[in-house]
Specification:
Oligomer: single chain
Strand content: 25-35%
Shape: elongated
CATH topology: Maf protein
Number of helices: 6
Radius of gyration: 17 Å
Number of strands: 7
Number of domains: 1
């Protein structure tokens, strides 16, 4: 009888960890220290998949006979990709831009299977897009978001589970994707990896 491969989430995100628990499968979290470069590709789909793949690949060799999950989530408005802000001033400008606008939330999701030597033997990749429509934000609303949410540690400076979630008018697509892990896609990928 062959041993089930261990499942490794290449992330330190508490939100992703909580979502993984919903799948009711045993898993461990191991942070990938891959240095993200948000300027590698202009196409958000290509960029999100690339970053997710690199996060998973960065730690894959450490886990033989395992399944490694990499995910990367960020927003975009038009052609502008919204990564993690480097300051509260930058967060303010990002959030202000979202006022009365539609934000595209992209998640690249990569699932890797390693062999007994920790070499990658199979890799699956997908991209999920969810559209958020944000209501008109006052200066006070934006300042409240910056004060109450961990804006410097999330792409686009907003988090649906936090203060900023109050200002989302509509969500078109996968809610879990906005949090950072599209569970339906992940479940399908885990079934075939």
């Amino acid at each position: 009888m062959s041993k089930q491969p261990g499942i490794i989430l290449a992330s330190r995100s508490p939100a992703r960890k909580n979502l993984m628990k919903e799948l009711e499968v045993p898993f461990e979290c191991h942070t990938s220290n891959y240095e993200e470069d948000m300027t590698l590709f202009k196409d958000p789909k290509k960029l999100s998949i690339h970053l997710a793949s690199e996060k998973a690949r960065f730690i894959a060799h450490k886990f033989p006979d395992s399944i490694i999950i990499g995910a990367d989530t960020f927003g975009s408005i038009g052609n502008q990709i919204l990564g993690k802000p480097s300051s509260k001033e930058e967060a303010y400008q990002m959030i202000k831009q979202m006022s009365e606008n539609t934000v595209n939330v992209h998640t690249g999701l990569v699932v890797i299977r390693t062999d007994s030597q920790g070499e990658i033997k199979k890799e699956l990749a997908s991209h999920t897009l969810t559209k958020l429509t944000v209501i008109k934000l006052s200066d006070k609303n934006i300042k409240d978001i910056i004060e109450k949410d961990d804006v410097l540690n999330v792409a686009g400076a907003i988090t649906i589970e936090g203060e900023s979630g109050k200002y989302v008018d509509t969500i078109e697509g996968d809610y879990h994707n906005v949090i950072g892990l599209p569970l339906f896609q992940l479940k399908e990928m885990l079934a075939v990896i």
